[in-house]
Amino acid sequence: MTTLDSTRSRPESRDVDASPTRVQQMRRWPGLPILVLFVIMLLVCTALRPQFVTAPSLSGFLAIFAPSICLAIGVGFVMSVGSIDLSIGPLMGVANILTVLLGSVGFSLFTAGPSGAAAACSEPGLCSQGLPFALAATIAIAVTGLFGLINGLLVACVRLQPLLATLASGFVVTGIGLWFFPKPGGSVSSAAVSAYGTPALLSLPLLAIAVVVLVAVLLAKSPLGVRMRAVGSDRQRAYSALIDVSRTTVLAFTTAGVLAGVAGVLFTLSVASADPTIGVTFTLNAIAGAVLGGAALRGGRLDPLGPLLGAATLGLVGVLIDALDVPTYFQQLASGVIIVVALAATTRTARARKARS
Q1: Cβ–Cβ under 8 Å, residues 101 and 180
Q2: What's the rounded Cα separation, in Å, for the pair 116 and 101?
Q3: Is residue 199 within 8 Å of residue 60, measured between CB atoms?
Q4: What sign does the CA torsion over 271, 275, 280, 286 have?
Q5: Is 60 exceeded by the pLDDT of residue 322?
Q6: Alpha-carbon distance 327 to 333, whole Å?
Q7: What is the model's pLDDT at position 146?
Q8: DSSP helix/strand/coil, 123
Q9: pLDDT for the residue numbered 94
Q10: How far is CA 263 from CA 147, 154, 190, 267, 269, in A?
Q11: Across the chain, how many H-helices and E-strands are there?
């Protein structure tokens, strides 16, 4: 009798033990490796350059890398449905150009022609006749959201391969940006730039990042976020579960387009001008940051905190290289090597954790 009772009690204890603790859940989190790497990089940067942890320095760091964080989170949404977006950097560039042009010359940019509008937005007497900065930024974000919607329709409804579709749309967007603004220049509202660059820890860059991350997390936890993960995990099962796969994919791309617009506005506030050639670098950094943060190229994962840490870690790579006084012509090489090593270490850790589970 005792033997039977003890035998019956074993499954119950096994069930109790099977429930994961908070420590086990943390160890299974895909973003854990990049969190550890971020902390290590932060400690190293602080040791090499103690002034980095001061409020003005951290505020400047956040102001510079807030666009990359927004883009990495946007790419994470697209990756969650098993796609990729190579146009997200050029979309950011278009938002940057539109914010400068609309804030300088307003809607007259459509009548003055590209060269005329670009020249006028650098003239002190003409560049103050534009729209209020908030309205110009809102229109720029709406435009990039529309481009994101078009990307989603090309992938979900026209059935184009995401890599080729977004690569082509990225070229188109870059061409439009160069047509409107052929070379870097222009100016932005000095009041907006001054407010954004306030040297305090609780500054606008931190507030902007917090709002973007909060909205992204709420969206990831919403029913739409669940559908995105379901589509990325197994499209056939998503169809069987009566999930509108096409609509979900379009919304993922649209979200990425909106976040690219936000990144463009933040970049505009950071540099106080327009640059039509920034797209490619930001695209590669955004994808690297998302992958570092645990986003899976095959889809099925959606966690904005991971890409946030991934993009911030890439920013710390730049700080580390600068602190080590690496020559300018070696910085791109050093950054690339560090990114490859970090990606390899993160992937290997994730595979080992998956094998253990």
Answers
A1: yes
A2: 11
A3: yes
A4: positive
A5: yes
A6: 10
A7: 97
A8: coil
A9: 94
A10: 15, 23, 19, 6, 10
A11: 16, 0
What is the distance between the alpha carbons of residues 145 and 325, in angstroms, rounded to a whole number? Answer: 40
Distance CA 257, CA 250 (A): 11
CA 82, 314, 73, 356 torsion: positive or negative? positive
pLDDT in tens, 145-189: 999 999 999 999 999 999 999 999 999 999 988 888 887 877 787
Q: What are the structure tokens assigned to 100, written together?
A: 């400068």
Contact 186, 122 (CB under 8 A): yes
What rounded mean pLDDT belongs to the chain? 82
- Rounded to two decimals, the pTM is 0.86
- Tokens encoding 53: 């942890």
Transcribe 322-335 into DSSP letters: HHTT--HHHHHHHH
Structure tokens at 111: 């009548």
Q: Considering only CA atoms, which of 214, 241, 236, 238 is closest in space to residue 228?
A: 238
- Round the CA-based radius of gyration of the chain to a whole number and report it: 23
Q: How far apart are CA 156 and CA 163, in angstroms?
A: 13
Distance, CA of 338 to chain centre: 19
Sequence-distant (6+) residues with CB within 8 A of 301 are 30, 76, 79, 80, 229, 232, 294, 295
Q: Find the largest Cα–Cα distance for the chain.
A: 96
- Give the DSSP letter of residue 107: G
Q: Are 95 and 144 in contact (CB under 8 A)?
A: yes
CA angle 331, 337, 340 (to 5 degrees): 140
Contact 84, 170 (CB under 8 A): no
- List residues bridging with 274 in a β-sheet: 185
DSSP string, 249-312: HHHHHHHHHHHHHHHHHHHHHHHSSB-TT-HHHHHHHHHHHHHHTT--TTS----THHHHHHHH
